[in-house]
Structure to design on (488 residues):
């Protein structure tokens, strides 16, 4: 039931003051500075640059850098909308909160489940990337089968342990990995630009792409560009950490918009540099990873130091971006599940925290799901799944932003998106457009995985429907709003 047809302001009822204290007590501890939140968001967005390079370059060819610039411009309106919503509704849960308050608890549940489809795929995809890099660089494809699963599970356990520690541990670790990765990639881009092999002639087949055979050059490139939204999702992790921030609420916009711009600029520079050194007539467009390593070897043949540099690039171009991204999304998914447990979308056990203020069951559940996801070996399927799920969730949040503008113009908004309603409509149109083009290009394996994931969500949703139908304190969910704590 939507807030406009059935809602109860808890704080307006003095007799229920104890319930308010109980419900607004989250268990999370304020310990994240703005820099840490920015690096967690930027680190989450910062994609697997030298692992998924084959996907990016296959989808958009020599024009990959332009695709990233266009997607940066397209994501910014969505970022503006999230910046406004997150300062108006500063509670852990992001789209869970936005869409419950904007539409109803069912929209809140499903938007949260959709975004977690992307978030929960990241740890397994990241581990797969590290294992493939180890095979490529050191093991000659000797790590596979059950051995790969065991090593991958150990890596996931390490991420889980970091997530269960104090916030400053994760924040400090992510800050170090992120800035080392950015510095290393910019150095590599400079090497490409000044190698003597970079040439404008390599951009003659500017829109060549892997989808051209099925959809034609133009539509194929647009479909590939739509999938480039995957390297941008992550800015929505900022609202997931709002209750742990030690900075003014309105400063969230700096982390959200700054993370999008930082990553977009770096992507464009790096792939402009690399694309200018690739002979596209010989490129296979097969989405195979580690194109950057092979390009470096061709551009600097016989250089005695190149083998060592490729190993170093593997660390700051594969391992560190994966490390920052996995940690950022793991952190955010944990807090989403925590919020769902605290606010009666899931059993209350999901809201219990350890002595460091870290949710216990959500961490363990994500560990189990991630180990299970290791069975999904296709990196392209991972990539496509994330893009589609994110686009649908962004569209739902844009609808909620529009509805809240209409229904509650009086609510305080510490930050307002420039352009007002026009920006929110643009965000909705962009999100739906990306979703449509992703839908056109998605393969059967991705649809099967998506259907299975949504099936699990359907079972959980039906379980909670039965719980909500029983009268009593567990028959509603609640959200903190500018009008007080409201039941839905």
């Amino acid at each position: 039931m939507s807030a406009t047809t059935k809602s109860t302001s808890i704080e307006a009822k003095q007799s229920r003051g104890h319930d308010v204290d109980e419900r607004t007590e989250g268990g999370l501890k304020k310990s994240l500075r703005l820099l840490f939140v920015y690096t967690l968001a930027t680190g989450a967005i910062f994609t697997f640059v030298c692992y998924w390079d084959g996907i990016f370059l296959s989808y958009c060819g020599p024009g990959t850098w332009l695709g990233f610039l266009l997607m940066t411009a397209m994501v910014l309106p969505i970022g503006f909308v999230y910046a406004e919503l997150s300062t108006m509704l500063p509670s852990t849960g992001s789209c869970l909160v936005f869409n419950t308050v904007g539409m109803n608890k069912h929209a809140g549940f499903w938007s949260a489940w959709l975004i977690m489809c992307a978030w929960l795929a990241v740890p397994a995809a990241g581990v797969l990337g590290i294992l493939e890099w180890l095979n490529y660089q050191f093991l000659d494809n000797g790590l596979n089968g059950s051995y790969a699963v065991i090593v991958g599970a150990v890596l996931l356990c390490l991420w889980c342990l970091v997530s269960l520690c104090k916030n400053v541990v994760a924040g400090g670790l992510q800050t170090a990995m992120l800035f080392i990765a950015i510095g290393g990639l910019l150095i590599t881009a400079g090497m490409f630009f000044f190698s003597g092999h970079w040439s404008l002639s390599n951009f003659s087949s500017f829109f060549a792409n892997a989808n051209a055979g099925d959809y034609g050059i133009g539509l194929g490139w647009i479909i590939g560009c739509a999938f480039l939204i995957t390297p941008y999702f992550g800015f929505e992790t900022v609202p997931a950490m709002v209750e742990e921030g030690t900075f003014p609420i309105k400063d969230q916009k700096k982390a959200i918009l700054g993370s999008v711009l930082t990553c977009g600029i770096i992507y464009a520079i790096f792939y402009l540099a690399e694309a200018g050194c690739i002979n596209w007539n010989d490129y296979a467009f097969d989405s195979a990873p580690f194109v950057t390593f092979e390009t470096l070897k061709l551009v600097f043949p016989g250089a005695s130091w190149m083998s060592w540099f490729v190993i170093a690039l593997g660390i700051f171009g594969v391992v560190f971006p994966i490390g920052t991204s996995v940690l950022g999304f793991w952190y955010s998914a944990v807090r989403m599940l925590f919020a769902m447990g605290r606010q009666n979308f899931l059993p209350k056990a999901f809201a219990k925290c350890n002595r460091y203020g870290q949710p216990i069951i959500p961490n363990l559940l994500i560990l189990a799901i991630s180990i299970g996801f290791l069975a999904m070996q296709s990196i392209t399927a991972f990539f496509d799944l994330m893009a589609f799920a994110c686009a649908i969730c962004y569209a739902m949040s844009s609808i909620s932003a529009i509805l809240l503008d209409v229904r509650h113009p009086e609510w305080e908004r510490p930050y307002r998106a420039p352009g007002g309603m026009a920006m929110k409509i643009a965000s909705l149109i962009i999100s739906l457009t990306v979703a449509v083009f992703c839908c056109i290009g998605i393969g059967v394996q991705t649809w099967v995985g998506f259907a299975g994931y949504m099936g699990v969500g359907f079972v959980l949703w039906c379980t909670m429907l039965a719980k909500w139908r029983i009268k009593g304190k567990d028959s509603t969910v609640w959200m903190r709003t500018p009008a007080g704590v409201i039941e839905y």
Observations:
- The radius of gyration is 22 Å.
- Residues 1-26 have pLDDT under 50 and may be disordered.
